[in-house]
Amino acid sequence: MGIPRALLVLCIATAFLSLGPRGSLGRSHLHKRQQSHGRRGNGGHRLQSPVDSPADPPAAGTSTTVTPSNSSSDSSVFDVRSFGAVGDGVTDDTEAFRSAWRAACSVESATLSVPSDGVFMITSTIFPGPCQPGLVFQVDGVVMPPDGPQCWPKSDSKHQWLVFYQLEGMTLRGEGTIEGNGEDWWSLPCKPHRGPHGSTLPGSCDSPVLIRFFMSCNLTVRDLRIENSPQFHIKFDACEDVHIEGLSINSPAFSPNTDGVHIENTRSVTIYNSMISNGDDCISIGPGCSDVDIQNVTCGPGHGISIGSLGMHNSEACVSNVSVKNAVIRNSDNGVRIKTWQGGMGSVSDISFDTVYMENVRNCIIIDQYYCSNKGYCQNQSSAVYVSGVTYANIKGTYDVRSPPMHFACSDTLPCTNITMSEVELLPHEGELVDDPFCWNAYGVMRTVTIPPIPCLQDGQPESLQEIPNLGC
Ligand SMILES: *[C@@H]1O[C@H](CO)[C@@H](O)[C@H](O)[C@H]1NC(C)=O
Ligand SMILES: *[C@@H]1O[C@H](CO)[C@@H](O)[C@H](O)[C@H]1NC(C)=O
Ligand SMILES: *[C@@H]1O[C@H](CO)[C@@H](O)[C@H](O)[C@H]1NC(C)=O
Ligand SMILES: *[C@@H]1O[C@H](CO)[C@@H](O)[C@H](O)[C@H]1NC(C)=O
Ligand SMILES: *[C@@H]1O[C@H](CO)[C@@H](O)[C@H](O)[C@H]1NC(C)=O
Ligand SMILES: *[C@@H]1O[C@H](CO)[C@@H](O)[C@H](O)[C@H]1NC(C)=O
């Protein structure tokens, strides 16, 4: 695949650059800037124009230069207030953040600090790399975008708000909150059933992803609270080595399209010890992802943990080696889901859901190879994304009886194979047992008897599957 290879090159290149002469050149340049502008040395007054000009090359914070030999950690903290941020929740602090970023970016192991006593409003911003290694974006206060589409600057992207681009070895963390102010976006009349009389008005309905990491590697996002995103809360595309830990993501159940964590074309991801409640997928894993390890995640309300949708518009999509362990899913429209469009190509393989506790979940276990977001307008097509090697172990709890707790709707032409079930015990949350799980073209084994039993899961390998389809991607 093109993108991950390009990414690898980027990561190697930036690693090389940061060790190479460019780092030191950057440093001496910074020293000069520092001296000529006398920043921060004179009592930390607000910085004015020199740093604000977008044409300015990256500039360094001061303490490094004031006491070059002092290697205490404070020497590389770049407080956005020192760059002119006001933090009153009203003033546009974008330029201060950009300046602080440029300064921090050019110093090794620097911290851009958003102090705990402020609410900082900034508009859609790209924070570009490459930067010196070890950069930390520390949010202890509140950072938020303008309040809804009315206040969104006309010239700004409506696809994304904070973008971290071409970074290596960066950390986003803090005790603070990234507040998305999403309410007015959720109720746009083009959003599902938000038009007059419950209609959905036509037209483009772009709403910004709150935080996006793009073409970056070795990233850590931890401890933050992220809430009320206009669209996805945090998205990684074309990234590698992503570590998420201790996040708390919150939006109401009725907020449309507010996936918690979304990854695509991203390899080697860990998502640990996080709580996500929202109006769409808790975690969504798109095409081109592999080696994803999810542990100790609590989801709900929302739409559960989802692989897909894959294969839209006859595209090729592969996802492999995804493990979900020790998850809790509550009050959700789905539990653990794999969804693909008809007409796609590629494969989903080596997927494990182990020790998942469900509480009042619809479609606890579901594979849907007939996914269609515009109900009724999807034609039957024969090609499909091949689903094989999916393990469900120790999945317990309760389901919403409006749907069967297990649902395997596999492709007519390409059956799902090697589905393994053990210790699956699901009971109605309220009401009558639904003891007719749904299977269509699903092959696999029950290692232990499931509750409810799933006799429709067929033994062995399907005859129709003469040879293993080309799994290439
Ligand atoms: C570094 O700076 C801090 C605060 O300015 C000071 O307390 C400390 O002694 C300095 N350390 C060295 C090694 O100069
Ligand atoms: C990843 O980044 C961290 C800093 O965030 C750094 O300490 C570590 O060495 C990096 N790892 C690799 C493999 O580059
Ligand atoms: C699957 O992913 C894990 C990380 O989540 C990795 O340690 C392991 O080596 C991968 N397995 C394969 C077969 O690539
Ligand atoms: C998951 O939670 C358990 C129990 O709290 C803990 O022992 C384990 O280290 C956690 N796993 C990860 C990957 O943090
Ligand atoms: C697709 O196939 C199903 C089952 O064979 C059939 O019920 C349905 O009408 C078909 N849909 C279209 C759009 O052809
Ligand atoms: C079935 O899937 C398991 C794990 O998902 C894998 O280890 C095994 O090799 C697969 N078997 C076949 C025949 O594909």
TrEMBL record:
<feature type="region of interest" description="Disordered">
    <location>
        <begin position="24"/>
        <end position="76"/>
    </location>
</feature>
<keyword id="KW-0378">Hydrolase</keyword>
<feature type="signal peptide">
    <location>
        <begin position="1"/>
        <end position="26"/>
    </location>
</feature>
<dbReference type="InterPro" id="IPR006626">
    <property type="entry name" value="PbH1"/>
</dbReference>
<dbReference type="GO" id="GO:0071555">
    <property type="term" value="P:cell wall organization"/>
</dbReference>
<dbReference type="GO" id="GO:0004650">
    <property type="term" value="F:polygalacturonase activity"/>
</dbReference>
<comment type="similarity">
    <text>Belongs to the glycosyl hydrolase 28 family.</text>
</comment>
<keyword id="KW-0326">Glycosidase</keyword>
<keyword id="KW-0964">Secreted</keyword>
<dbReference type="InterPro" id="IPR012334">
    <property type="entry name" value="Pectin_lyas_fold"/>
</dbReference>
<dbReference type="Pfam" id="PF00295">
    <property type="entry name" value="Glyco_hydro_28"/>
</dbReference>
<feature type="compositionally biased region" description="Basic residues">
    <location>
        <begin position="28"/>
        <end position="43"/>
    </location>
</feature>
<keyword id="KW-0732">Signal</keyword>
<protein>
    <submittedName>
        <fullName>(wild Malaysian banana) hypothetical protein</fullName>
    </submittedName>
</protein>
<feature type="compositionally biased region" description="Low complexity">
    <location>
        <begin position="49"/>
        <end position="76"/>
    </location>
</feature>
<keyword id="KW-0961">Cell wall biogenesis/degradation</keyword>
<dbReference type="InterPro" id="IPR000743">
    <property type="entry name" value="Glyco_hydro_28"/>
</dbReference>
<dbReference type="GO" id="GO:0005975">
    <property type="term" value="P:carbohydrate metabolic process"/>
</dbReference>
<feature type="active site">
    <location>
        <position position="303"/>
    </location>
</feature>
<dbReference type="InterPro" id="IPR011050">
    <property type="entry name" value="Pectin_lyase_fold/virulence"/>
</dbReference>
<keyword id="KW-0134">Cell wall</keyword>
